[in-house]
Amino acid sequence: MSQLNLLAPAKINLTLEILGKRPDYFHDLTSIIVSVNLCDEIKIEESSELEIFCSNMLIKKESNLAYLVANALRNQYKISTGAKITLKKNIPIAAGLGGGSSDAATTLIGLNKLWGLELNIDQLRPIASSFGSDITFFLHNGTAMVQGKGEIIRTLPQANIKYAVILSPDMPINNKTRVMFSKVTPSHYTKGALTRKLESRIRNRGDIPSELLFNVFDPISSNLFPELKSTREVFSEIWTEEIHICGAGPSLFTLVKSREIATALSLLLSKKTGFKSYVVKPTKAIEWK
């Protein structure tokens, strides 16, 4: 196998609840995540050295999660050869869509094949979780309930979602995730009831009612970032259904029942805000043997 061409999907969080703080100072969370078909493109080729080339020059090799997990996998299993990884970024970076984590998980899956390791998901999971909370989810994709720091995954049937529209504001926020989590107080903690109710509904192939969608960072982000608050207000003027932040933001999303309406909404949002907007639909889970 001399070359692999892979797609690394983005994700949206239907729920994101924080249950409390752990002894290791991370937060205990529960979330229902859905992978969607806004994808980075990854090409992995045989090479004597381990090297990575990224279309976004802002992402340096030393901080590129795909390179870091590749190097860890190579070292752990004492791989004598390398790989050339070419990454075309289509998912906005630092946008709450999990692009970097997805790239890392997809690279692990690809190198597992390229190097003939034949590792199962349980063997890849420790490397994935050591580099980021979302990476483990992207070893599964599809729809899943995520717990702990993000490393505990309970797979679900595909969520009954037709389309989603994602609006991705171009507003760089330094140390965004750290800043957002630092603003979480005990008043934001919940018991995970909304996530459990939505999990049950998805398991029973039910619909996704708007009253069960929730993200703890919705009010926090609006208070922290006035520009994001004003962007959200424009979104709300155009669209009367529920709007939520993706992960820790700043991307926003809403669920839409038809492609025609989703396309019209996406075009109008881009025109009104000047930011990129995407029409997406859920992707299937990875089938591990």
Structural account:
- The chain is an alpha+beta fold.
- It has 2 domains: 3-156, Ribosomal Protein S5, domain 2, CATH 3.30.230.10; 163-280, GHMP kinase, C-terminal domain (Alpha-Beta Plaits).
- It has 8 helices and 11 strands.
- It has helices spanning 65-76, 99-114, 121-131, 176-182, 193-203, 217-224, 226-238, 259-273; strands at residues 3-21, 27-47, 50-54, 82-88, 143-148, 152-156, 163-168, 214-215, 244-245, 252-256, 276-280.
- Strands 1, 2, 3, 4, 5, 6 and 8 form a 7-stranded mixed sheet that branches. It has a 4-stranded antiparallel sheet with strand order 9-10-7-11.
- A hairpin with a 5-residue loop joins strand 1 and strand 2 (27-47).
- Helix 1 (65-76) crosses helix 3 (121-131).
- The longest helix has 16 residues, at 99-114.
- The two termini are 19 Å apart.
Number of strands: 11
Report the β-strand fraction as a percent range.
25-35%
CATH level-1 class of the largest domain? Alpha Beta
What is the global morphology?
globular
What CATH architecture label of the largest domain applies?
2-Layer Sandwich
Counted by DSSP, the helix tally is 8
The ordered string of helix (H) and strand (E) elements is: EEEHEHHEEEHHEHHEEHE
User: Which stretches of 5+ consecutive residues score pLDDT under 50?
Assistant: none
Q: Span between N and C termini? A: 19 Å
Mean pLDDT: 94
CATH topology of the largest domain: Ribosomal Protein S5, domain 2
Q: Given the helix and strand composition, which structural class is it?
A: alpha+beta
What proportion of the residues is helical, as a percent range? Answer: 25-40%
Q: Compute the CA-based radius of gyration.
A: 19 Å
Q: State the major sheet.
A: 7 strands, mixed
Total tally of structural domains: 2
